[in-house]
C-alpha cells in the first residue's frame, strides 16, 4: 500500500518520457512543447557549467580557512558551558538550507542570494545531543506529533545530561507526580544563537591576522546563518542544532522491506547508519516541542547511486522552481529531492544511466511535481505514509500547478532565464572579488604569518578534492580540544 501511495507520477504519462531512439524520423521532440531534446540537453549542460564554480588554489584555501574558523568557534561554544558533546561529529553538506539539503521551513528563512550575499553556501548539522549506544530500531515519542515528527524526552539520558539541558526544555508534570523534560528545538536554538554570538563577540575583540571577517550572524527560525568573508570569498554557513541517533527509527522500518534503486550498489548498513531530529515543526504542531526526522546522512549515501545526467536535470529543475514557486511558500527544493528519489525507485536503472537524457529527466521531474501539486500528495521517501503536501490549500496547490504548466509549455525559455541568473550571480562574485583585491582586502595567504601560515600542501590537496568531487557532501569529525588537525570525509573518502 505504501508503494502505491509513494509513486507520485501518472502510470500512463505521455510527453516527457520520449523513447530510447527516434527510429530515424528526425530530431527527437518533446510532445508538449515541441522543443528539440538535443537543444534542451545543451541548455542544461550550459546551466551546469555556470552553476558549478571552479575553485583555484586561493579559493580552496579560503574555503578551508572559513571551515576551520567555524569549527574553532564551535569548540569555544562547547567550552562556554560544556553543553555540546566534547567530541562531536558534524555533517557538513554542500549547499545551504535554502537549497533543500535538509527539510526545514523556508518561510522562516531570510532571503539570501548567491552573488549578492555570498559566493558559496554550506549546511552544518551540529549534534547538541547524541544517542549512539541504542540498539535499532529506535522508538520515538510520536504520540503528540504529526507523522514524521517527534517530541524528545530527556528520560532517555542520564541525570548529568538532564541537569545540563534543563533550561532548554519544556516541563510536563505527569499525574503520577513525576516531571518530564522535553528537549525544546526553539529553546535550544535560542541558546545556540546566544552562545555563537557571545563567542564571535569575544573573537572579534582580539582579531588575528588572516582571521575571516564575520559579515553577518542572523537567527532564521531555528537556524543560525553566518556569512564569513575570507579574502575575496564570502561563505554562508547555515548552522542547525540537531539530535543525532545511530540506528534507524521504527517508524521507517517498513521502508527497508521494499526494493530500492540502491540495492546492491551500497550496503544497507551504509544507508541506515543513523538519522537526526532537526528543529522543524509540522504545520499543526507545537514549535517549542516538535522535531522533524531527517535522513540527511542516508541521503549523502544515496546520492552516490544517482547518475550525473539525472543530477544535472535535478539541479536545473531546482533552480527554475526556486525562482518560480517562491510565493506563496509551498514547494521547497526538498520536495523535488524526494520526487527524484522516488523516480529512481520507479524507473529502470539503464534508462536513468543514459548520458544524453538530461532533458527527459528534467521534463519528467516537472511532470511529477505538477502531478504532486494537483493531487496534494508528495510522500516522504523514507516515511511514505507521511504526505509532505497534506497542509496545502487547494488554491495554493493549483496556483503552483498552473505556474509549472507554463514551464512545461516552454522549458527552453525557462532554462535560458535560469542560465542568465547563474551568469549574473557569477558576474557579481567576480566584480566583488575585483573590488576586494583592488582595495587590498586581507587574504589568508597574504597576511597570515609565522605559525598561523596555512599549509600550502593542504590548500592544493583541498583544491584537488573540491575539483574532483563537485556537489558532494563532506562529513567532518572534530575534537573541540584539538582544532589544529583536519578530519574530513568526502562521501566515502577520508583525508
Automatic annotation (TrEMBL):
Region (Disordered): 1-22, 436-455
Domain Mab-21-like HhH/H2TH-like: 329-404
Residue stretches making up the Mab-21-like nucleotidyltransferase domain: 144-302
Compositional bias segments (type: Polar residues): 13-22, 436-446
InterPro entries in the cross-refs: Mab-21-like_nuc_Trfase, Mab-21_HhH/H2TH-like, MAB21L/cGLR
Family affiliation: Belongs to the mab-21 family.
PANTHER family linked to this entry: CELL FATE DETERMINING PROTEIN MAB21-RELATED, NUCLEOTIDYLTRANSFERASE MB21D2
Protein name according to UniProt: Mab-21 domain containing 2
Species of provenance: Seriola dumerili (Greater amberjack)
Amino acid at each position: 500500500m505504501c508503494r502505491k501511495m509513494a509513486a507520485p507520477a501518472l502510470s500512463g504519462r505521455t510527453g516527457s518520457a520520449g523513447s530510447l531512439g527516434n527510429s530515424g524520423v528526425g530530431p527527437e521532440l518533446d510532445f508538449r512543447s515541441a522543443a528539440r531534446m538535443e537543444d534542451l540537453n545543451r541548455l542544461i549542460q550550459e546551466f551546469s557549467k555556470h552553476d558549478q564554480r571552479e575553485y583555484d588554489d586561493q579559493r580552496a584555501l579560503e574555503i578551508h580557512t572559513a571551515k576551520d574558523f567555524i569549527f574553532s568557534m564551535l569548540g569555544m561554544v562547547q567550552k562556554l558551558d560544556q553543553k555540546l558533546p566534547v567530541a562531536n561529529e558534524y555533517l557538513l553538506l554542500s549547499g545551504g538550507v535554502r537549497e533543500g539539503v535538509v527539510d526545514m521551513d523556508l518561510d522562516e528563512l531570510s532571503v539570501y542570494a548567491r552573488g549578492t550575499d555570498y559566493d558559496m553556501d554550506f549546511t552544518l548539522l551540529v549534534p547538541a545531543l547524541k544517542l549512539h549506544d541504542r540498539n535499532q530500531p529506535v522508538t520515538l515519542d510520536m504520540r503528540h506529533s504529526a507523522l514524521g515528527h517527534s517530541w524528545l524526552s530527556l528520560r532517555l539520558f542520564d541525570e548529568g545530561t538532564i541537569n545540563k539541558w534543563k533550561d532548554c526544555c519544556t516541563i510536563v508534570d505527569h499525574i503520577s507526580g513525576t516531571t518530564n523534560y522535553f528537549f525544546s528545538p526553539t529553546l535550544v536554538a535560542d541558546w545556540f544563537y546566544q552562545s555563537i554570538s557571545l563567542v564571535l563577540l569575544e573573537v572579534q575583540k582580539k582579531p588575528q591576522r588572516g582571521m575571516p571577517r564575520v559579515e553577518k550572524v542572523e537567527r532564521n527560525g531555528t537556524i543560525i546563518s553566518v556569512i564569513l568573508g575570507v579574502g575575496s570569498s564570502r561563505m554562508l554557513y547555515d548552522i542547525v542544532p540537531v539530535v543525532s541517533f545511530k540506528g534507524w527509527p521504527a517508524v521507517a522500518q517498513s521502508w527497508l522491506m521494499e526494493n530500492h534503486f540502491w540495492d546492491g550498489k551500497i550496503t544497507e548498513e551504509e544507508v541506515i547508519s543513523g538519522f537526526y531530529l532537526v528543529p522543524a515543526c509540522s504545520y499543526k504542531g507545537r514549535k517549542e516541542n516538535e522535531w522533524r526526522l531527517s535522513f540527511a546522512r542516508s541521503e549523502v549515501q544515496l546520492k552516490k547511486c544517482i547518475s550525473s545526467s539525472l543530477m544535472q536535470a535535478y539541479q536545473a529543475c531546482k533552480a527554475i522552481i526556486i525562482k518560480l514557486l517562491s510565493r506563496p511558500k509551498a514547494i521547497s527544493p526538498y520536495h523535488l529531492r524526494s520526487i527524484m528519489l522516488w523516480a529512481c525507485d520507479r524507473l529502470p536503472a539503464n534508462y536513468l544511466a543514459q548520458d544524453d537524457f538530461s532533458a527527459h529527466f528534467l521534463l519528467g521531474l516537472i511532470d511529477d511535481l505538477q502531478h504532486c501539486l494537483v493531487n496534494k500528495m508528495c510522500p516522504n521517501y523514507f516515511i511514505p505514509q507521511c504526505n509532505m503536501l497534506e497542509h496545502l490549500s487547494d488554491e495554493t496547490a493549483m496556483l503552483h500547478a498552473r505556474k509549472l504548466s507554463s514551464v512545461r509549455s516552454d522549458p527552453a525559455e525557462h532554462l535560458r532565464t535560469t542560465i542568465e541568473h547563474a551568469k549574473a550571480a557569477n558576474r557579481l562574485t567576480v566584480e566583488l572579488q575585483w573590488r576586494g583585491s583592488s582595495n587590498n582586502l586581507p587574504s589568508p595567504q597574504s597576511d597570515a604569518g609565522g605559525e598561523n601560515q596555512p599549509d600550502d600542501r593542504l590548500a592544493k590537496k583541498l583544491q584537488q578534492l573540491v575539483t574532483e568531487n563537485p556537489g558532494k557532501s563532506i562529513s567532518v569529525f572534530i575534537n573541540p580540544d584539538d582544532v589544529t588537525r583536519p578530519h574530513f570525509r568526502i562521501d566515502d573518502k577520508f583525508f
